[in-house]
Design goal:
The protein is mainly α. 55% of the residues lie in helices and 5% in strands. It has two domains: 114 residues, DNA polymerase, domain 1 (Orthogonal Bundle), CATH 1.10.150.130; 199 residues, Intergrase catalytic core (hpI Integrase, Chain A), CATH 1.10.443.
Length: 344
């Protein structure tokens, strides 16, 4: 301590508890600007995962060994990527504590997450995300067309034919549609933490690459025109009671004009899957994977698919693409073999 005082590096550590410092850090973190509410929510959730280990311990008393033991325990409870996120938050908290001279030593510095080895059974399991084959997609869309609720067919048609995210879909506005160019512009996404129809916000997309324009089929434009005509009648009938902000998927009853909840779209899809006798574990995001697989099957390159989906890099998309193209290569090889055998 004396040498630190002489060198001017002495820091008098505070007696702040982890449970008291973490919320202060979160507030400072949130004031950085350009952060989505969802990001703040994730960080708060990750703090909650650290509290059982450090809540009533003074920041200065958290040791490297204690932090490592917490990581080791967490990896036994949660997925590797989840623990990575928790650790990222923990590191930021302790780094800020050093910056604010609450502590003088970072207990997270020499810690690591031990990535669990996969079992043979896990390696043998199919790791490809769930998606529909083209015949299943056709059945699903036909079911939505004939037995779906209001806007079901249009919503699932667009999700299937564009691969857009559900949060991008529900906040589409009419000014995002270019009927002359047959294109849909993606410049925003929907956020609604409490699933309260009227308490939503429009955020910037997930990444810069997510801002894009998607060229679509004539049939989608025709369905959009039909829906616009029907929506205009609802607006005329309801007048000022309609929240007329230009949302394509604006509700026609109970808070009319407000965008459909993401949860509503997911529930409606489950209903249609059950009706069609299809896998009920599929979700609206599965339609994004389906779009990827069918583009790959049609011979579209990985880079073009990534661009259409709004990805710069995505392991899931790459995995589906490689799976589908590998199947095509196998079929091509079999066809060649059959052709040669037919000569005998």
């Amino acid at each position: 301590m004396l040498s630190e005082i002489k060198q001017g590096t002495f820091v008098e550590e505070k007696k702040t508890l982890f449970k008291d410092f973490a919320p202060k850090w979160l507030k400072l973190y949130g004031n950085r600007g350009n952060l989505k509410p969802g990001t703040i929510r994730v960080r708060r959730h990750e703090i909650d995962k650290l509290l059982p280990y450090f809540a009533y311990i003074k920041m200065k008393d958290v040791t490297t060994n204690m932090y490592q033991e917490a990581l080791d325990d967490l990896i036994g409870k949660y997925a590797y990527n989840t623990v990575k996120g928790i650790n990222r938050t923990g590191r930021m908290i302790f780094k800020k504590a050093i910056e604010l001279e609450v502590i003088k030593r970072d207990p997270t510095e020499f810690t690591s997450i031990k990535k669990p080895m996969k079992t043979i059974e896990e390696l043998e399991e199919n790791q490809i995300p769930k998606y529909m084959e083209k015949e299943e997609l056709y059945l699903f869309l036909e079911t939505a067309k004939k037995q779906g609720l209001e806007m079901d067919y249009l919503a699932f048609l667009i999700l299937s034919y564009t691969g857009m995210r559900i949060g991008e879909l529900v906040c589409l506005k009419w000014n995002d549609i270019n009927f002359k160019e047959n294109s849909i512009r993606i410049i925003k996404t929907y956020y609604n933490e409490k699933n309260n129809t009227v308490e939503f916000s429009l955020e910037l997309p997930k990444t810069q690459g997510s801002i894009r324009t998607i060229v679509v089929e004539d049939m989608i434009m025709e369905e959009l025109k039909k829906h616009r005509t029907a929506q205009k009648k609802v607006i005329k009938r309801l007048g000022d009671a309609y929240y007329n902000e230009g949302f394509i998927f604006g509700k026609s009853e109970r808070h009319p004009g407000y965008p459909m909840l993401i949860k509503t779209v997911a529930n409606r899809m489950k209903r249609l899957l059950k009706t069609a006798g299809l896998n009920q574990e599929l979700t609206p995001h599965s339609l994004r994977h389906t779009h990827t697989s069918l583009l790959a099957e049609a011979g579209v390159g990985l880079e073009e698919i990534m661009d259409r989906l709004g990805h710069v890099e995505d392991e899931t998309t790459r995995l589906i693409y490689l799976h589908v193209t590998e199947e095509l290569k196998r079929e091509a090889s079999q066809k060649f073999g059959q052709l040669m055998r037919s000569l005998h």
